[in-house]
Amino acid sequence: MTYIQQCAELTKDLYSKFDASHDMDHILRVLQNARTIMEEERTADRTAVELAVYLHDIDDPKYAAAGNPSAADLLKAMNVPAQLADHVLAIIRSVSFNGGNEEPIMSPEAAIVRDADRLDAIGAVGIARAFAFGGARGRKLYDWEESSRSSMTEEEYRSKNTSTVTHFHEKLFLLKDLMVTERGRQLAQQRHTFMEAFLKQLELETGERL
Fold this sequence. Notes:
57% helix; mainly alpha
């Protein structure tokens, strides 16, 4: 069994405990995005990319739970060589948005995984995920009086219970211009445009002025 096959098996039950915004379906969509980007980024280490995709949400603070293994634990359980394991963990650290306080991209593999994950945060599926997460956390759908923040610490980003529409302005609408790979930028544009159209329609339906 390959490392990728092992990793898929080991993470399946863990992601089943997460809400629909970060479940195994999310992982599989990110994996497909990464494979699409790798069609043009042919020099990337495919094993490192795919391991990082499977493991990138395991240590997410939003879902941390006592007793769950870390990404490092799972890599060790699979007997992944130390150099590859370190590379995978470095990729994972560079993925999170963290309120705009992201780590710098240090490898082609990190660029691919970050873009692949962010593509799943925008467009139609990004909208669905945003409202799924907001619903799981008891957040309002929208609050047209709420101001979005343009600068915040990671702690501020994670601690304030803003409406889901505010999250569009604080993160989702920013992602198009933060893509690193050429293919990621191409794919992000159409998804970004769809989100803009969705929000305009929501404003119309709720009686808000555009």
